[in-house]
């Protein structure tokens, strides 16, 4: 089920939280929603899940507008809110049965659905415990199970791995990736490697506006523009090597990192690899390292959101 967002705007009084954004998410796609604190991620997610009303613009889910059919559309959506509200006094199984009934799962299907979610979310060993007795990570798993209990076609996950230990993070990411093959998933996070590990596409929002939309590779390419190489060249004096590198016509800047290790920036749309190689052959210098430096997602994020 596809989600289409058209010119969506939300204000809280004078505070503009979401400012005229448009994007689409297709079935089978996992979209990573990134942005600094207060960027508008949760507000957007709350509008998609119909927890708060849209001010301007529209959201269509499977072709139906949230403006006219919000209640009906809710059954297609599973939502893990940022603070994962749970009934702490309930046992895991009771809570999941209760959530299933709330979400309109027919009574005779509830035991089977609960069983499936317990298995999928790795809750078997904890299923008889009260939620209050669970660790943070297991509470998060219960939140995920609750979000998926009615087998929704769309999953909206607000910071799903917050508070999890590294092992649990890997497991929950695996789980989301698996689920995302058939469903439409939007997840927000502050953890940049998480987006690379889990998401097909990244949307970066800042001050209520979309500032980037694409795959991690695309964003990197856009940000890179210029080739950046790290090289170690041996068997020559570092001053002479640096001078010769600077003289290569395609090179725009050279920075010496350590003794004979340099960072070479090429001019826009030019590559210096072959010239560096030829230079070393001519001078009997030996290249022991020549690697293109990847722009990190962190750098792209900082670049786009700290203006
Ligand atoms: N109920 C509210 N009343 C007034 N302002 C609000 C309310 N909820 C959010 N805001 C404001 O709207 C803006 C967007 O907030 P939102 O919670 O959507 O950001 P976010 O990207 O989810 O941030 P975070 O990463 O910190 O969770 C912020 O300036 C915030 O202070």
TrEMBL record:
Q: Which PROSITE patterns match?
A: ABC_TRANSPORTER_2
One Pfam family in the UniProt entry: DrrA1-3_C
List keywords of the entry alphabetically: ATP-binding, Nucleotide-binding, Transport
ABC transporter domain sequence ranges: 3-232
Q: What SUPFAM superfamilies does the database record attribute to this sequence?
A: P-loop containing nucleoside triphosphate hydrolases
Q: Which PANTHER family match?
A: ABC TRANSPORTER, ATP-BINDING PROTEIN (PTHR43335)
Q: What is this protein called?
A: ATP-binding cassette domain-containing protein
The protein's organism comes out as Agaribacillus aureus
